[in-house]
Amino acid sequence: MVKKEYAHLVKPITIKNPPKGLYAEPRMWMESKDMEGFNAHFSFGFVKKPATFHPLEGAIVHPYDEVLVFEGTDSKNIRYLGAEVSVEMGEEREELVFTDPSCVIVPKGTPHGPVKVKGLEKALVHYTIGLADAYKAAPAKVRASKSKASKYSHLVKRMLTNFRSMARTASGALTPPPGPDRLQADQYGVIRAAAMGVGPGNGDEVVWLYGDDLEGLELNFTWGLYSQCGKWHRGGEAHYHPEAEILCFVGLDPDKLDYLGAELELGMGKDYERHIFNTPTVAICPAAFPHLPLITRWVDKPYGFFVICLSGEHASPWVEA
Predict the structure, then answer these.
(1) What digits encode the pLDDT tens for the residues 277-308?
(2) Which of 57, 75, 197, 273 keeps 20 to 30 A from 238, CA to CA?
(3) 180 and 151 in a common domain
(4) End position of a domain, from candidates 117, 139, 158
(5) Residue 189 domain boundaries
(6) Peptide bond into 114 cis (omega under 30)
(7) Cα separation of 150 and 144, whole Å?
């Protein structure tokens, strides 16, 4: 077998028990040490029944900025959450409540938690992004009673694409074209592969948030639902980004964290070194590292995909041939 130069950048996502008192079930969990020094960490899992978590009781505080993401598992409707979620925020214990797919920004040093999910109609996706190399948390002191104020309400962001933020990025494969397709996407805040002129393997529905949407964080990230085979991008064989990013491929079966339901092929490096995988996988792309083409070879069940990029914007220039 020929040794591949970039095999260390394409890794199965680790599934393990989270830190004690944070979640009741195992989750996908990756930190910088697991991702070749990528300066962030993430976890991914499902909420399958009404629950309290992050943490299971009390409140915690992190020495870094964090984003908590909540999405539904209806593979035909990215705008469906199917639950009521509440997050307590600040020493005041202000309760933030939402029923649409949303993310919650937790500025570093801000007490938060627990998260509560009720009225659950269908399992939901919950992933976290921490802007530091590893998870760190300490118990936080909070008030005995909850505040009725709205000091933190601006930290809840609906998971919809703001194309005014998107337009600030350099030309990329998903930048919306002018004309009716852009108006349709603007109206719903959802990127649809068919309307964006990208390849057939790209997302059925995708949402993308940028630094402008995230209180100025040096972060942009996505969530998308995928079910079609084929190449993902048009316009070139490989692109790169000025900042580091990771590509995360995950399944949508709440009872099988290790199941992806598809097989994909990803080119890495200037020579498009081919990597094939069919289990939950993270691909690490250092700053200015060429990657693509990305091709979905087969799909048994719809799957999820998210990007985490360490910049408030998302420049994606093609590599010159």
Answers:
(1) 999 999 999 999 999 999 999 999 999 999 99
(2) 75
(3) no
(4) 158
(5) 163-309
(6) yes
(7) 18
